[in-house]
């Protein structure tokens, strides 16, 4: 069945601005969108196998996560905000935004967040090596992936404006099809 609203994945290395973008998009979208911060969702709904003390992170139970998300995704009108995207089936995504940021800025943002040094280093290197972008490219068709810089407030505003335009266009195209 055709969705009445799109599913947008916002991905990127931690600290690139996924939640900030998602929240602003919820506020500015012409159609109602629900923001799912997948990391928080995993914790709240206990969709993990264990807590890894060394990396200070949860090992996600991917089957449970996908089962929880499936009904929400089939309704559409969802922003999935997570630092990885390859677990989501290709058919789920209408648009995949990959946020990018200078790695030294990512470092500062994660330091402010109080991340342990090891985790800051890991994410810093991941941003330099464009791990998330490569993962998105390996998981979704090129035409639905958009790479956006997220270093300044101007970037943030321009990115959200672009996503709003995309939603308007998506809606128009789907109304003509239905
Ligand atoms: N484009 C941007 N310009 C300025 N600050 C930003 C931008 N994007 C994110 N930030 C800031 O960086 C920090 C991390 O952003 P957040 O949205 O939590 O990242 P993520 O969800 O990717 O981990 C926050 O303090 C946020 O205000």
Q: Any descriptors?
A:
single chain, 178 residues, Rossmann fold, 5-stranded parallel β-sheet, 7 helices, globular, binds adenosine-5'-diphosphate, ribosome biogenesis
CATH superfamily: P-loop containing nucleotide triphosphate hydrolases
Uncertain segments are none
Largest sheet: 5 strands, parallel
Number of domains: 1
H/E series? EHEHEEHEEHHHEH
How would you portray this structure in words?
This protein is 49% helix and 19% strand. The chain is an alpha/beta fold. A five-stranded parallel beta sheet has the order 2-5-1-6-7, sandwiched between helices. Helix 1 (18-28) packs across helix 7 (153-177) and helix 4 runs antiparallel to helix 5 (117-128). The relative contact order is 0.22. Residues 12, 14-20, 109, 150-153, 155-156 line the site of adenosine-5'-diphosphate. Adenosine-5'-diphosphate (ADP) is lined by residues 12, 14-20, 109, 150-153, 155-156.
SSE diagram, text form:
Blueprint: E1 7-11, H1 18-28, E2 34-37, H2 38-44, E3 48-52, E4 57-60, H3 62-75, E5 78-82, E6 95-100, H4 103-112, H5 117-128, H6 131-139, E7 145-149, H7 153-177
Residues 12, 14-20, 109, 150-153, 155-156 line the site of adenosine-5'-diphosphate.
Brief overview:
With 178 residues, this protein is an alpha/beta fold. The protein contains 7 helices and 7 strands.
């Amino acid at each position: 069945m055709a969705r009445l609203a799109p599913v947008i994945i916002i991905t990127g290395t931690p600290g690139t601005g996924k939640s900030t973008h998602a929240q602003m998009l919820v506020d500015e979208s012409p159609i109602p969108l629900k923001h799912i911060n997948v990391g928080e969702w995993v914790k709240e709904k206990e969709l993990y196998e264990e807590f890894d003390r060394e990396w200070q992170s949860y090992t996600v139970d991917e089957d449970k996560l996908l089962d929880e998300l499936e009904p929400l995704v089939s309704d559409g009108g969802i922003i999935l905000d997570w630092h990885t995207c390859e677990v989501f089936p290709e058919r789920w995504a209408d648009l995949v935004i990959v946020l990018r940021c200078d790695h030294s800025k990512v470092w500062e943002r994660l330091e402010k967040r109080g991340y342990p040094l090891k985790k800051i280093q890991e994410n810093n290197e991941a941003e330099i090596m464009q791990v998330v972008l490569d993962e998105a490219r390996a998981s979704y068709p090129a035409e639905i992936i958009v790479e956006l810089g997220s270093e300044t407030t101007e970037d943030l505003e321009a990115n959200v404006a672009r996503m709003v335009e995309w939603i308007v266009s998506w809606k128009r195209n789907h109304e003509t099809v239905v």
